[in-house]
Design goal:
The chain is an alpha+beta fold. It contains 9 helices and 20 strands. The protein folds into 3 domains: 64 residues, Uridine Diphospho-n-acetylenolpyruvylglucosamine Reductase, domain 2 (2-Layer Sandwich); 113 residues, Uridine Diphospho-n-acetylenolpyruvylglucosamine Reductase, domain 3 (2-Layer Sandwich), CATH 3.30.465.10; 105 residues, Uridine Diphospho-n-acetylenolpyruvylglucosamine Reductase, domain 1. Helix content is 26%, strand content 27%. A hairpin with a 3-residue loop joins strand 6 and strand 7. Helix 5 crosses helix 6.
Length: 336
C-alpha cells in the first residue's frame, strides 16, 4: 500500500521531520517490482536505516523502505564461510548473529547504525576494518530494466566510504542481499589503540571476537550519542587524505597532530575529528543543534532542528578548517 504525505521523522536518525509525497515498504523483490511498476516517473528514494542521510526539504517523490530480511549460510569450507543477509536487516543485529555463530571478521564493525544493504554502498569501516575486507558479492535490482544483477568485489569499486553505488550507478540499483566471506578461525584485530585500552580496562588478555565486539560497543557508546536520544548520523565528515606537504605545514604549529599512512607514500590520512576539535568546534551548541561534546565528528539535533540548519553548520566547519589548516573536509552523510 502506498501512503501519501508521510512524515519521515522516525525514519531518519537525525530526527528531521520532512514529508514524503508517497511512501511504502517492501519485504521482497516481488513487492519492490510491483511498487516500481505502479509508480510514475517520480523521483525514487530507497531508505534503509536512515542513518546516513540529512533531509533538508520534503521529498517530492516516492520513498521505499527496504525491509528484506534473511540470514543464511550459502557456502561453508574448512576455514571460512559465506553468509548472506537480506539488505533490510539491521546491521548491528546481523553482526551479533555472525558472532553468535563464531564467524569472524565483522566484530570491529559492531554498533554501526543502519542496514546491511547500506554497508557496501558506503564501504562502512571502523577500528581497522572495512566492508571491502570481507565482502563477497551482492544482488541488486536494476530499476531501469527490472533485472537482478550480481556484483562481485571488483565491480563494486570500493574506496574510502565509497562504492560504485554512490557515484557512477547512484540511484540505478536497489540492493537486495549482501554476502560476506568470514573466517571460522578467530583472527583478532585489536590494532587500534582504543580497543587495546578498552580490553585492558576489561582485564581481558586473550580476547574472543565477542570481547572485541563488546570493547567496540563500549568505545562507541562512550563517544557517540544514541540516535534514539539525540538525533545524529554518526560521523558527519570523512577523514581527509592530504599531501604530506600539508601535514608538514600543520606540524609547524601542532607537532602532535595524529596521522595515518595510506597506500600512497606522498599522502596521509588526518583525523577530521582532531581538526574540528583543534579549531574549537567541539561541544558548540546553537539553540537546538550543534557539535557533540564527546566527539567533534558528530553533528547533533537536540530537538526540532531542521536539515538546513545542520547543513549550514557543516558549511561553517568546512570553511573554518580550510582557512585554519588548508584542508578541505568532505561530508560522509548524504544530503537531500
Amino acid at each position: 500500500m502506498i501512503q501519501n504525505n508521510v512524515n519521515l521523522l522516525d525514519l531518519n536518525t537525525f530526527g528531521i521531520g520532512v514529508l514524503a509525497k508517497h511512501f511504502s515498504r517492501f519485504e521482497s523483490v516481488e513487492k519492490l517490482k510491483l511498487l516500481l511498476e505502479n509508480q510514475s516517473k517520480e523521483e525514487i528514494l530507497i531508505l534503509g536505516g536512515g542513518s546516513n542521510i540529512l533531509f533538508t526539504k520534503d521529498f517530492n517523490g516516492i520513498v521505499l523502505k527496504n525491509e528484506i530480511k534473511g540470514f543464511k549460510t550459502i557456502e561453508e569450507h574448512k576455514d571460512d564461510v559465506v553468509v548472506e543477509s537480506g539488505a533490510g536487516e539491521n546491521w548491528h543485529e546481523f553482526v551479533l548473529k555472525c558472532i553468535d555463530n563464531n564467524f569472524c571478521g565483522l566484530e570491529n564493525l559492531s554498533l554501526i547504525p543502519g542496514s546491511v544493504g547500506a554497508s557496501p554502498m558506503q564501504n562502512i569501516g571502523a577500528y581497522g576494518v572495512e566492508i571491502k575486507d570481507v565482502f563477497e558479492k551482492l544482488s541488486a535490482y536494476h530499476i531501469p530494466s527490472g533485472e537482478i544483477h550480481e556484483f562481485n568485489h571488483s565491480q563494486c569499486e570500493f574506496g574510502y566510504r565509497e562504492s560504485v553505488f554512490k557515484r557512477k550507478l547512484k540511484g540505478q540499483y536497489v540492493i537486495l542481499n549482501v554476502s560476506f566471506r568470514l573466517s571460522k578461525k578467530s583472527k583478532i584485530n585489536s590494532s587500534y589503540g582504543a580497543i587495546e585500552s578498552e580490553l585492558k580496562k576489561m582485564r581481558i588478555i586473550n580476547p574472543s571476537i565477542k570481547d572485541i565486539s563488546n570493547a567496540v560497543i563500549a568505545i562507541r557508546s562512550s563517544k557517540l550519542p544514541n540516535p534514539k536520544l539525540i538525533g545524529n548520523a554518526g560521523s558527519f565528515f570523512k577523514n581527509p587524505v592530504v599531501d604530506r606537504m600539508i601535514l608538514n605545514e600543520i606540524q609547524k604549529n601542532y607537532e602532535d597532530v595524529p596521522f595515518y599512512a595510506t597506500d600512497h607514500d606522498d599522502k596521509v590520512k588526518l583525523p577530521a575529528g582532531w581538526l574540528i576539535e583543534k579549531a574549537g568546534w567541539k561541544g558548540k551548541t546553537f539553540e537546538h543543534y550543534g557539535v557533540h561534546k564527546m566527539q567533534a565528528l558528530v553533528l547533533v539535533n537536540y530537538g526540532n532542528a531542521n536539515g538546513n540548519e545542520i547543513l549550514e553548520l557543516s558549511n561553517q566547519i568546512i570553511n573554518d578548517i580550510n582557512q585554519k589548516f588548508g584542508v578541505t573536509l568532505e561530508r560522509e552523510v548524504n544530503i537531500l
